[in-house]
Amino acid sequence: MQSAVTTSTSDEKILELLGTAQTYERGFRLLLAEYKERLYWHVRRIVLVHSDADDVLQNTFIKIYKGIAQFEGKSKLYTWLYRIATNEAISFLQSKNRQATASLDDSANQLSTRLTADVWFDGDDIQVRLQKAIVQLPDKQKLVFNLRYYDEMPYEEMANMLGTSVGALKASYHHAAKKIEAAFKEPE
Questions:
Q1: 3-state DSSP percent of the chain in helix, strand and coil, to 5
Q2: Which DSSP letter does residue 19 get?
Q3: Domains of the chain by range and CATH?
Q4: Nearest CA to 63 among 44, 38, 39?
Q5: What is the mean pLDDT of residues 104-130?
Q6: Are the CB atoms for 136 and 179 separated by under 8 Å?
Q7: Structure pTM?
Q8: What is the C-alpha to C-alpha distance for residues 39 and 133, in angstroms, rounded to an integer?
Q9: Whole-angstrom Cα distance, residue 15 to residue 5?
Q10: How remote is the C-alpha of 73 from its chain's centroid?
């Protein structure tokens, strides 16, 4: 993971380049280079499947490209980017859930089956068990767990991104961790 100083300097350079029409494309390419992989894995942990993550990421970068001029600098650039990626991933899942006629339990089972069948998933048995446990979590707990566990996002930044309190996020993470722990205690 990069240091905050490096990211901050990169963000300043990116925003500077995005500030003028002559350097906009170069700035956007730099933004892609800096954040594409991190955003991909963030989205992938939400939607689970590689092809879905690619679709969501493409939509995310289209929104970023069209909306970067609205970035006010009230938060860190990556917090703003993660907010867009998170919203796109959630919208994608909601759209998929509306289209599905299966029950929620069947949806979770279908997601875990798709995960293990995905040619891009190369996890071992423990990773498969972890992903299956995460899939069973309520949406908010799943999101908070992924942001904290995988992205190591501070609660304060999550609160800013999700528009909720630090205490609520800590509680969601705690409940998610307990449910995942319980899932690992169950026999396979």
A1: 80, 0, 20
A2: T
A3: 1-99 (1.10.1740.10), 102-188 (1.10.10.10)
A4: 39
A5: 58
A6: yes
A7: 0.71
A8: 22
A9: 15
A10: 21
